[in-house]
Amino acid sequence: MFRTHAIRFAFAAVWFFLVPAVVAYVLLGILARPGVNLPLSDFAREQSVPAGIALFTVLELVLYSFRHNLPFARFVAVAGRHGVPVELRAELEQALRLINEADAIVAKHSDAIRAQLGAADHERVLGVVESARSATRAEPLDPVRLRETQSELNELVVGPLSRWKKSELLEYAGSIGTALIVALLLRAVVVEAFKIPSGSMLPTLQIGDHIFVNKFIYGPKVPLTDTRILEHMPPHRGDVIVFSHPVPALSPDDLIKRVIALPGDTLEVESGHAIINGWRVPSCPVGTYAVSEDPLDSSVGDLFVEYLEGTAYLAFYDHDHTPARQGPYEVRPGEVWVMGDNRHHSADSRVWPNGTGLGRGVPYGNIKGRAMFVWAPLSRMFVDLMGSPVLPEGAPVEILEAIAACLAKRPTPEETVPPSGKAALQALGR
């Protein structure tokens, strides 16, 4: 019994999950590729998760329709029966499907069948169904009898009973429609795909990375509104969040940055280094590194591992910048202040206008969710954006060794939490 279940599980896992998932992923990548203008290309680029689920569903339906002809299908039982010849597998399943369909029609519309077809035809329907059921249970299967009863039952279902039968087209449309609705609901409430548009989060995120965003973690939003069901789940310092621009006129697109300061904090920035309530965010120098937003140009600077509220991440400080001190900024209730990890090439809270000058936080209502992991390209698949820092392939060995050394001597979580609010500044005489 265990062996039977194991074979069935392995067969289903390969053909009805792994194969359609891989093919859907490849097709989605082709459709969403810049410059490709195939049907559904725009949908694939703008709604990658629903498009991927729809592709997966269609491929699953296609494979399922050929399930008896797939490699190793002969080792899988049909309707709990082993040893069914390959040429009878589809006919046995078809007969069982017709029996179930006829049973459902009779159970739901028995009175209407008797009234519209007459008592004699009603009894004939019941007799044909029972005869077909007996043929499917025969041991061994009689191919002639199975085909005869299946044919007779099919004539009933597509003939007298057809007015109560749901068409296959509607069934397929319903399956695909259900998948799309589920995908859209998941996107609206639970998880959404996001593509990195710029280099403001280098080297943590590369331009063109595709990531998933957890939209539930800060409290789910009511669809089509900015109202959160659970308001008591705000971001933490160090979180990488996706949000809509606090000044919509500057950008209609969603942005991604790292949370640096919370309500009640006083934030100062010294040459890109964050100082929260008079406390400088702990860091460990890694060495000289280069990041590139343009294939023809790159920036050389200092790379650090920084530690904030238990999170370790990489921050890049360009050599070619003018030292400056920004702030102090007071973080207001109901908002967070964010900065890009590419500190001197990020338009963030430090430069957004607030009406009287520069410096503006992100309201909780603008936050879409927290970044989870990279799912494309393949070379960066499953990079955890809230886990240990990861550089792209090809990074210098000495840099990787320096990052490992910094992580090995990282401070305790308690040592990465800044003192709270204005009391800390008052203690420093500010």
Kindly describe this structure:
This protein is an alpha+beta fold. Helix content is 38%, strand content 21%. The protein is built from nine helices and 14 strands. Strands 1-2-14-3-4-12-13 form a seven-stranded antiparallel beta sheet. The relative contact order is 0.09. The mean pLDDT is 85.
Annotate the secondary structure layout.
Layout: H1 2-32, H2 41-46, H3 48-65, H4 86-117, H5 119-137, H6 143-158, H7 168-189, E1 191-195, E2 210-214, E3 240-244, E4 254-261, E5 266-270, E6 273-276, E7 279-280, E8 283-294, E9 297-308, E10 311-318, E11 325-330, E12 335-339, E13 362-363, E14 367-376, H8 397-408, H9 421-427
Antiparallel strand pairs: 1-2, 2-14, 3-4, 3-14, 4-12, 5-6, 5-11, 6-7, 8-9, 9-10, 12-13
Largest beta-sheet details: 7 strands, antiparallel
CATH superfamily of the largest domain: Umud Fragment, subunit A
For the record, the CATH class of the largest domain is Mainly Beta
The string of secondary-structure elements, in order, is HHHHHHHEEEEEEEEEEEEEEHH
Q: How many DSSP helices?
A: 9
The figure for the number of domains is 2
Q: In summary, what is this structure?
A:
The protein is an alpha+beta fold.
